[in-house]
Amino acid sequence: MAAKPFLLLSIRTEERAALDEHAAFARFLGVPIEEVRRFELGTSPLPDVDLDAWAGIILGGGAYNASDPEESKPDAQVQAEQDLARLLDDVVARDFPFLGACYGIGTVGRHQGAVVDRSWPEPVGPVSVELTDEGAVDPLFAGLPPAFTAYGGHKEAISRLPDHAVALATSAAAPVQAFRVGSNVYATQFHPELDLGGILTRIAVYAHHGYFDPSEQDVLGAAAAAVTVVHPMTILRNFAARCRQGDGQPDAMQS
């Protein structure tokens, strides 16, 4: 029987960044890119998703912010958010394997009642992450050291989680770097799919999207190159292995 594919939900309309994100997720999940099916949210309505057809679902990052004022959101973002809210209703009810990165943490957080605001922005580049006690024993973070460096960069973050969510990672710059709902629905503020090549691509593509002054590109690139980022990708390998262990069924993700 053929392995079930992964569904990658993308909000990136910038082709270079979108293709790089797709390739990176496949590479660090450890599966052929053909087994990661990408759907671009906002360009057309998301069809009904039969969860049983997928090994797991991933939501990547991009230029949207869950905390953007409603009146300022373009139609594509409104459509994407409506589709994601509907999908997350089903994902959370089923406790289905889901991993949201960057924009994903705000989206899942907002869906679950977290406070998502502009209190804890981080510049594009290296991020120091520490696992909480719960994160240290969480199966998705198995094999990671208690503290590690990742790449990130965001305008919004979660400043308060709801009581039923489990905080898995934190940092001085942003109090919620990762959390879990139930046993299988995860989100990270940092990007587990980003290596040096990936962050340099994002810096180039999003130089004029308000994350930093365009004149800072070289400085940000040098700061990114000055660190070694190898641990966050383990999260994706763990996610893929656990999804595939049970052919995508939620019971395979139980700790």
| Number of helices in the DSSP assignment | 7
Report, as a whole number of angstroms, the end-to-end distance. Answer: 26 Å
Instruction: Compute the CA-based radius of gyration.
Output: 17 Å
Biggest sheet layout: 9 strands, mixed
Secondary structure category? alpha/beta
Count structural domains: 1
CATH architecture: 3-Layer(aba) Sandwich
Physical arrangement of strands within the biggest beta sheet: 2-1-3-4-11-10-9-6-7
Strand content: 15-25%
Basic shape: globular
> What is the fold-level CATH name, i.e. the topology?
Rossmann fold
CATH H level: which superfamily?
Class I glutamine amidotransferase (GATase) domain
Protein name: Glutamine amidotransferase
Keywords: Glutamine amidotransferase, Transferase
GO molecular function: transferase activity
InterPro entries: ChyE-like, Class_I_gatase-like, GATASE
Question: Mind explaining what this structure looks like?
Answer:
This protein is of the alpha/beta class and about 260 residues long. It has a single domain (about 5-255), classed as Class I glutamine amidotransferase (GATase) domain (Rossmann fold, 3-Layer(aba) Sandwich). The chain contains seven helices and eleven strands. The protein has helices spanning about 15-30, 75-95, 105-110, 135, 195-205, 215-225, 235-245, and strands spanning about 5-10, 35-40, 55-60, 100, 115, 120-130, 145-155, 155-160, 165-170, 180, 185-190. The strands form two sheets. It has a nine-stranded mixed sheet, with helices on both faces. Helix 5 runs antiparallel to helix 6 (about 215-225). The longest helix is centred in the first third of the chain and has 20 residues, at about 75-95. The radius of gyration is 17 Å and the shape is globular. The two termini are about 25 Å apart. The model is unreliable at about 250-255 (pLDDT under 50). Keywords: Glutamine amidotransferase, Transferase. It holds the Pfam family GATase.
